[in-house]
């Protein structure tokens, strides 16, 4: 009986790191934003999760013509939105990704953010100023 308990404990302990790694990687990949106007590719850069715009759907304009016109910093208003890193600084805490920032090119504002994958194809992002319990949550869909 002791042998069986020891074996089960060993299997559980060895399996938990794999579950943690799998959970961390759930956020990786390309996601379609709520408005279905942009795709954002999320990567892991040494434990920090970053998201960069890789596709835009702006009728009548080519991707390179879409500029960051709403940016609060006037010197950045002529930069293209395509290729822009809009999500940065997220770290995984075992349950969710937190401590990051998300930039909204439509408003030109940057918000603190946290993220959670509740379904393998749905990413829940919460942007907020100050306290995380006050903010707005959006859902992105995984691109296959």
TrEMBL record:
<dbReference type="Pfam" id="PF09917">
    <property type="entry name" value="DUF2147"/>
</dbReference>
<feature type="signal peptide">
    <location>
        <begin position="1"/>
        <end position="23"/>
    </location>
</feature>
<dbReference type="InterPro" id="IPR019223">
    <property type="entry name" value="DUF2147"/>
</dbReference>
<feature type="domain" description="DUF2147">
    <location>
        <begin position="29"/>
        <end position="142"/>
    </location>
</feature>
<keyword id="KW-0732">Signal</keyword>
<protein>
    <recommendedName>
        <fullName>DUF2147 domain-containing protein</fullName>
    </recommendedName>
</protein>
């Amino acid at each position: 009986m002791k042998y069986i308990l020891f074996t089960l404990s060993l299997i559980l302990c060895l399996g938990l790191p794999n579950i943690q790694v799998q959970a961390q990687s759930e956020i990786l990949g390309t996601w379609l934003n709520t408005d279905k106007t942009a795709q954002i590719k999320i990567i892991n850069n040494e434990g920090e999760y970053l998201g960069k715009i890789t596709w835009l759907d702006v009728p009548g304009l080519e991707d390179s013509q879409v500029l960051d016109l709403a940016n609060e910093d006037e010197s950045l208003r002529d930069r293209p939105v395509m290729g822009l890193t809009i999500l940065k600084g997220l770290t995984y805490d075992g349950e969710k990704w937190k401590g990051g920032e998300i930039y909204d090119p439509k408003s030109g504002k940057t918000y603190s953010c946290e993220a959670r994958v509740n379904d393998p194809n749905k990413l829940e992002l919460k942007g907020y100023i100050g306290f995380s319990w006050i903010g707005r949550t959006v859902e992105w869909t995984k691109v296959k």
